[in-house]
C-alpha cells in the first residue's frame, strides 16, 4: 500500500470538548511524501502475536521514534479490524517510512489507514468503505483522511470528512526537524495560550483560493491556529519559516502540530520555470539555516491510500 502525508491548509481550533478533544475545522491536503506499508500473511512462528513489525527508510532519528510493538498505529489498526470482524490471522507488517515521525504530517495515521485496507483485503473481510472510515476514526483524528486523500475538510475532531475541490497541482517544500513534537503537548500549549478559543470556521478566503484563485491566493490564505503553540515549544521554527518566506515562498506555515514547516512554491496556472526557480531559492535558503534535518519537495494534492 502507498499512503500519503498531509499538510493542513487551514487548521482552526475551537475550545476543548468534554471528551478532551478540540472542535476543529481542518482542511487536509494530501502530498506526495509517501509511506509504503506491506502486509503479508506471516509464516508459522513461535509467538502468537497477531502482528510483527519492521520499519526502514527514514533517518535514524525518525526511525528511533517508531514503536515496533502493538502500540504502532498500523498494528492497532490490524488488531481493531480483527476484533470487529472476528477475522484475522498473523501478519508481518513492513513500513517503508518517508513521512517524518511526530512531524505533524500524520505519518502514523497514514500507516494505520494503509494497514486497515491491506488487512481487510488479506483477511477477505470486504468491509464497506463507510465501515472502514468509522474504524479509522476510532484509531485517531487523522486516520480517516489517510483513506480518502486529495483535499478535504474535517469537522468534529477532524474525522468527519467532506471532499473539497482543489484546482490542479501545487508544489510544496517541507523542512523536517530532527526533533519531534507530541500532538497532545501542542494542543495543551494551545489551551494555555488561547483559553478563550472561539468556535472554528472554514475560512472564506481559503475556499475562494481553492475554487480557482491560484497559488498566490492560496499562499495568503494558509493558516494554522496551532502554529503559535508549536513556536512556543520550539522557537527556532520561526527562523525556518522566515528563511522560506524571505526566499520567496508564496506561503509558509507549520504543518499541523509541527515541527515540520511547509512552504508553498506555486502551481495551478503559474509558469513552471518560475516555480522551479523559486523552489531552488527556497530549498537553498532552508538548507543554509542549518536548522533542517531534511528539505523535501512534494506535490499536492494526491490520492489517499492506494494498493500498489
Ligand atoms: C493536529 C492534527 O494532526 C491536525 O490534522 C490532528 O488534529 C491530530 O490528529 P491525531 O494525531 O490523529 O490525533 P489523535 O491521535 O486523535 O489525538 C492525539 C491527541 O491530540 C489531541 N487532540 C487531537 C485532535 C483533536 N481534535 N483535539 C485534540 O485535542 C488530544 O490531546 C489527543 O489525545
Ligand atoms: N506507524 C507509525 N509511524 C510513526 N509513528 C508512530 C507509528 N505508530 C505509532 N507511532 C507513534 O505516534 C507518534 C506520533 O507519530 P506521527 O508520525 O503519526 O506524528 P504526527 O505526524 O505528528 O501526527 P499528526 O500529524 O497526526 O498529529 C510517534 O512519536 C510514535 O511514538
Automatic annotation (TrEMBL):
| Enzyme Commission number(s) | 2.7.1.148
SUPFAM superfamilies attached to this UniProt entry: GHMP Kinase, C-terminal domain, Ribosomal protein S5 domain 2-like
Ordered alphabetically, the record's keywords are: ATP-binding, Isoprene biosynthesis, Kinase, Nucleotide-binding, Transferase
Q: Where does ATP bind?
A: 100-110
GHMP kinase N-terminal domain: which residues? 72-148
* Catalytic site positions: 6, 142
- Known catalytic reactions: 4-CDP-2-C-methyl-D-erythritol + ATP = 4-CDP-2-C-methyl-D-erythritol 2-phosphate + ADP + H(+)
Q: Which InterPro entries match?
A: GHMP_kinase_C_dom, GHMP_kinase_C_sf, GHMP_kinase_N_dom, IspE, Ribosomal_Su5_D2-typ_SF, Ribsml_uS5_D2-typ_fold_subgr
Q: Does the keyword Electron transport apply?
A: no
| Highest taxon, organism lineage | Bacteria
Task: Give residue ranges for domain GHMP kinase C-terminal.
Answer: 207-275
Q: What EC class is this?
A: transferase
User: What is the stated purpose of this protein?
Assistant: Catalyzes the phosphorylation of the position 2 hydroxy group of 4-diphosphocytidyl-2C-methyl-D-erythritol.
Q: Which HAMAP family match?
A: IspE
Looking up PANTHER family in the UniProt record yields: 4-DIPHOSPHOCYTIDYL-2-C-METHYL-D-ERYTHRITOL KINASE, CHLOROPLASTIC (PTHR43527)
Please give the family membership noted in the entry.
Answer: Belongs to the GHMP kinase family. IspE subfamily.
* Name of the protein: 4-diphosphocytidyl-2-C-methyl-D-erythritol kinase
Q: Which organism is it from?
A: Nocardiopsis terrae
Amino acid at each position: 500500500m502507498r499512503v500519503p502525508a498531509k499538510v493542513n491548509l487551514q487548521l482552526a481550533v475551537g475550545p476543548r470538548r468534554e471528551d478532551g478533544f478540540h472542535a476543529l475545522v481542518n482542511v487536509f491536503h494530501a502530498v506526495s511524501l509517501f509511506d509504503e506499508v506491506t502486509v503479508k500473511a506471516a509464516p508459522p512462528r513461535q509467538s502468537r502475536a497477531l502482528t510483527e513489525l519492521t520499519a526502514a527508510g527514514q533517518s535514524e532519528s525518525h526511525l528511533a521514534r517508531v514503536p515496533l510493538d502493538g502500540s504502532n498505529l498500523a498494528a492497532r489498526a490490524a488488531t481493531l479490524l480483527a476484533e470487529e470482524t472476528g477475522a484475522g490471522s498473523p501478519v508481518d507488517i513492513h513500513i517503508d517510512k518517508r513521512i517524518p515521525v511526530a512531524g505533524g504530517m500524520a505519518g502514523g495515521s497514514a500507516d494505520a489507514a494503509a494497514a486497515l485496507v491491506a488487512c481487510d483485503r488479506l483477511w477477505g473481510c470486504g468491509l464497506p468503505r463507510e465501515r472502514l472510515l468509522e474504524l479509522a476514526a476510532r484509531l485517531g483524528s487523522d486516520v480517516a483522511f489517510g483513506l480518502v486523500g486529495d483535499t478535504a475538510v474535517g469537522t468534529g475532531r477532524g474525522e468527519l470528512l467532506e471532499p473539497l475541490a482543489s484546482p490542479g497541482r501545487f508544489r510544496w517544500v517541507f523542512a523536517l526537524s530532527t526533533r519531534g513534537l507530541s500532538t497532545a503537548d501542542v494542543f495543551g500549549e494551545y489551551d494555555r495560550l488561547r483559553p478563550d478559543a472561539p468556535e472554528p470556521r472554514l475560512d472564506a478566503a481559503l475556499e475562494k483560493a481553492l475554487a480557482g484563485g491560484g497559488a498566490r491566493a492560496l499562499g495568503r490564505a494558509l493558516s494554522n491556529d496551532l502554529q503559535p503553540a508549536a513556536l512556543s515549544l520550539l522557537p527556532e521554527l520561526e527562523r525556518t519559516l522566515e528563511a522560506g518566506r524571505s526566499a520567496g515562498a508564496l506561503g509558509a506555515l507549520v504543518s499541523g502540530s509541527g515541527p515540520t514547516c511547509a512552504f508553498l512554491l506555486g502551481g495551478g496556472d503559474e509558469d513552471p520555470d518560475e516555480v522551479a526557480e523559486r523552489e531552488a531559492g527556497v530549498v537553498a535558503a532552508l538548507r543554509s539555516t542549518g536548522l533542517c534535518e531534511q528539505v523535501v519537495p512534494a506535490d499536492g494534492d494526491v490520492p489517499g491510500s492506494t494498493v500498489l
